[in-house]
Amino acid sequence: MDLGFGLALIGALVILVLLGVHIAVALFGVAFAGVWIIRDNPALAMRLLSVSAYNGIADYLFATIPLFVLMGLLVSISNVGRDTFEVAEALLRRVRGGLGVATVAANAVFAAVTGVSIASAAVFTKVAVPEMTRHGYRKAFAAGTVAGSSILGMLIPPSLLMIIYGVLAEVSIGKMFVAGVVPGVIIALGFVAVIIGLATFWPAYVYDLDRRRRLAATEADAPAMPAREILTKLVPIVLLVALVLGGLYTGFFTPTEAGGVGAFGALLIALARRSLGGGKIWRVLTETGSVSCSILILLIAAGFYSRMLSMAGVPTAIGDLVQATGLGAYGFLFVYVLIILFLGMFLDSSSILLIMTPIAVPIAQSFNFDLIHFGIVTVIAVEVGLLTPPFGISVFTVKATLGDPTISVEQIFGGAMPYILVMLAALVAIAAFPALSLMLL
Asked: Whose CB among 15, 100, 114, 298 lies 3.0–4.6 Å from 72's, allowing a Cys bridge?
């Protein structure tokens, strides 16, 4: 088939998603129609669909998804996010922009056990925004900081986006997790530097200055958190992070085993804190099933779509076109990132990965990119879309959770802008220097 037909199929998929068709339905529909047209055989399309459904998620590896989802939900319901923020607040109170730094630090720790940015955004909107506002920070800055730092949830492992990419690109999920650690730390440190810089040189962006001046005397007299309380609140989450990431990094656990151990550890924390009464355990289990099934159906649909693209020769044709234009490896990477950033303005993270990864990975291989490094660049680019208008799902999550009519979505987008710039700078650095993502492998 010619390239025009393949691009028409991709365009049809994007249009269906923009019209509000569920991404899985759109993937199945376009893939089925594509195979039918290419081979003029609806029975073959049906057989390929059944093979994709049967083989698509049969591997033991796919148990990673429900286990990490379960771990994240158990940690969320145990108020670990709140405790982590309170400890960070107590330790960083006297730093310029200290509560903003505390929000980033708590998000980074929380991200190491959740894997979902939206969960981080919802938890810290309830915990951090009221506290920051009470201490004289601007609401827009507080909400933007929560939205911005929530993206660490998909970058610092474990990460559901990394699992989806690893499955679609057929690379090691364990290596993806390890490769995400350094970029995640770089971006978190970039956020911290920006907050301290803004608080020092542009305090009106960070603080409600009049309110801040009135509160300064009271804050100076605030009692410090006792060391015993700090340990009580911090030890469970630190042990869980060390167990999961330590086991993955040393190779002692496979990703699936790490998910199982992490879920069991999170269950022990929830039981110790008596967080599972009143039907909460049933809600956690049903939500785990709901989220996991949604992701697994998407992966089946993406597998079917990928087979159709290969049958149509789309990746090869696009690869030949890219090479014929003389763009070169980094020219292709630049255009690819621009496309992802553009799609991020309209589509959610999973949809972008499911559409783009089957097309881009074969081309990246033809340019001899390391697919682990390529995956980290992809995930960072996709994550920027969580903060960019008009879609910006992290921003809308913060707005919905906040429920404050005095702060608009536009103000939250404005508050998140410094974090978008940090992520773009980190994206350029990590794309240019692959060692930043590969140094721990």
From this structure: 114
